[in-house]
Structure formats: structure tokens, C-alpha cells
Amino acid sequence: MKRYLLTFLLGGLSLGLAAQQKFELSHGPYLQEVTGDAATVVFQTSAKAFSWVEVKPHEAGEEESVRCHATEDGLRMAWNTFNSIRLKGLEPGKSYDYRIVSKEMKDFQPYKVTFGDSIATPWHTFSTLDPRREGASIFITSDMHGDAAKLEKLLCLADYKTCDAFFYAGDMMNYMDRPELPFTSFIDLSVRLFATSVPFEVVRGNHETRGCLARTFSSYFPKEDGKIYGAYRLGDIMVVMLDSGEDKADSHPVYAGLTDYDAYRAEQAEWLKQLVQTPAYRDARYRIVISHFPLVMPQRNKDEQEWRGWEDAIRKFLPVLNGTGVDLLVSGHTHRYYYFEPGADGNDFPVLVQGAYSAARLDVKDGKIHLKVVDTDGKTLKETVLDANR
Ligand SMILES: [Fe+2]
Fold first, then answer.
1. pLDDT of residue 299
2. What is the whole-number distance in angstroms between the Cα of residue 335 and the centre of ligand 1?
């Protein structure tokens, strides 16, 4: 449903512009949900089209490429602009090349389709996850609030070219009220720098839940299970991504009765209780949790109604995570940098709170997490080494 709504909105936008535009990719491609045997390629065309992805092993010739389409109910997706195409049947720890091929559709009659221009992008290379992989270099930031230039500065200061994984921990935009905003806020920049070859993960912040198009937000970051929250093994690292919702109570007048985050956080807490019992979680050498809200709250004396949602996230998630060997929680939201040691506020693991002007780089190797936080002036706010908590 979300995909149709997004396609409709983006399609309507592109129809109005189509007369002046040459046919091209207007956004992407970017990778999402790369696993050991699959990857999703996301892109948008400037006009309605019939698009697909061609993929081949990195060392193979072009003639060995295979076409991958998004299909539903026997129909290959067409007459659309926003595309999310899952490449399946890949092998773990292997490099692949892919490119987008798209044919503009000028007219679409029941028995006559009129195609326009065709395009093929250059080949891009990516690698599937290798379950035997040890360690990684991870970039995490949050709270950019639509400032792509600031994000680029922080990516460069953290030496993004040497990072293997990227996480945006929420509030990367102010509101979700225009379909272009996720692209202009952080996706287009990510595509230009790395996201054609390395995926980024989005952990939703409270600002991305606001606005008339908030219900389409997750469509830009498609997941097979349709959820925004989730977890996966990046080699020997367990990464858990929580969706902490809004900071105020569901009953707060600003939400006009349109939110149901208490129940949603309860659903996640139940999922989390199951997750921490799984071999994937228990056997991981490292465990990193990402949540937009810090799961500690230094502002305990604030008005109950004002922070009721945030407190609910702490009450539901923190007791489940305590005692399970979490090495580090990375969060954002407060716009100020904090680092809380275990025991600061009921947490048995360290909690890093990203400021709105900083980013964290985690170099995970040899049983240790080398944590460095830099701000936009290049100043190091924190540099420490954590021993993995097994
Ligand atoms: Fe926030």
C-alpha cells in the first residue's frame, strides 16, 4: 500500500515535470538490505517507465548478466517512477556488478505500449555480506535536520571511504511533508559518495514521523519484512535498530490522535525479547544497538507529558537489553553530545548520545571497539576503546 501511495505521489510530481525533462534517473541507485544472498536496489526515474536491474558476478562478462524485475501478482512493475528491485539468489561474501536499464513509457494503452528513450547506467559494484567476516568500520550520525552539507562534512571527517557500514540514527530531516525531502536531505548525497556500492541503514527519528507524508517514509528504505526496526549480523557484529517513536505521549494534542506509539514500542519490546535469545544475538562477538532516543534520560525532572514517549521507550527497551552483553548504544535526539558510562541511569552498557554537530566512527576489531566522535570543526569529542562484552 505504501509503495503504491509513494508511486502515485512521485508519479504525479514527475508527470508535471516530464515535458521539460530529459529521461534519466532522478535519484539513486542506492542499495538497501544487503544480506548474504540478496540486495535491494532503489532508484527513481524522471518519467514513467519500465525499469529493471541487470546483475552479474564482478568478474563475469556483460553477457552473463541476468535481468531482475520487481513483480507483483504476475505483473512486472511498469508505468512507475519509484523502483525498489530485490536481487535474489546471490552468494555470501561475493562481489557483483549491477546497472539500471529503463525505458521511458510515453503511453500505456491496454493493447499498445509506446516506449520513449532508453537509458542504462554505468555498472556499480557491491559485495554481499560474509557471515565469516570479522569486525567492521562503522559510521553513525543523526539529527542533521536536512543539512546535507553538514552530513558531507562529517562523512569526510570520519574518512567515510574506509567505512564498511553507515547508519543514520534519526532526524535526518525536519518533517516528512514533501516527497523530495529524503533525497535532498541525505539520500542523494549518500548516492554520490558511497550508496551505489555500500548500503546505509535508516533508524527513524521522531521528526521523520511528522508531516502529511510520514506514512510513506519507510518506502524509501524497503525491507523484506516491511518493518522499520530490525536487526542483522554484520559478520560477527550484531546490530539492533530500534524505532523509538515520538517523544511525547500519544495523547498529546500535537499528534491529534494520529499516533499509537505505546503499542508499537510494546510490539518492538516483545520482538526484542525474542531476539536476545537467538543464537545470532547470543553468539555475536559484538553487540551494538542504535536508537534515536537515548535509553537513559538525564532530564528526569521534565514535565511527564512532554517526554512521556521517550520515557516509555526507556521503560520498555532498557530492561530487555540489560544483561545481554550490549557493548554500546548509539543514539541522538538531544542535539548535544553526551557519553554515559554503564550505571549512569539504569543502563548496564555505555550510551553515546550524538550531538547534531558530530558523528561517530566505530572501528571494531580484535575484540575491541575503537570509538571516536568528531564534531564539524574536526575536534575530537571522545576517543576510547571498549572491550567487547561477551
Ligand atoms: Fe529527535
1. 62
2. 8
